[in-house]
Amino acid sequence: MKQGVCTLANYLPSLSPFGHPTTISTVERRRRDNINEKIQELGQLLPEQLVDGANKPNKGAILRKSVDHIKTLQTEVTTYAYRVKELESLLEKYRISGASLPSENGAPGASSQAASASQQGGGSMGMQGLQISGPSGNGNA
Hints:
This is Helix-loop-helix DNA-binding domain-containing protein. By secondary structure, the protein is mostly helical. It has helices spanning 24-45, 59-97, 112-121; strands spanning 14-15, 21-22.
């Protein structure tokens, strides 16, 4: 069969797995319904401060705000990953030198419990005494 040839079969509805005719409009409606459902789900996942409570957000606004929020989250993930590496290298430096971890006010020795917990637990438990800056630079994340 040549391409571009119009036949009656091109215009007849196809049969669904259940033997019922499915028209193009039914398939298209299902596709639109699925897209609309997922856009609404995205809107529900957005933080309240991004959603205008007075007006129901339209699809474009939901998609735009979702993209902006995802970009913000990606930036935060990058920032936190960098900060974790910084803190891990700092922790390793203190382990190698045998010095005690600094306290929140910067005096060494006050966080010796954190250092021993880190050595015993072998993980992030020892980092509880360290101040962690969030992406905006504030003291607590």
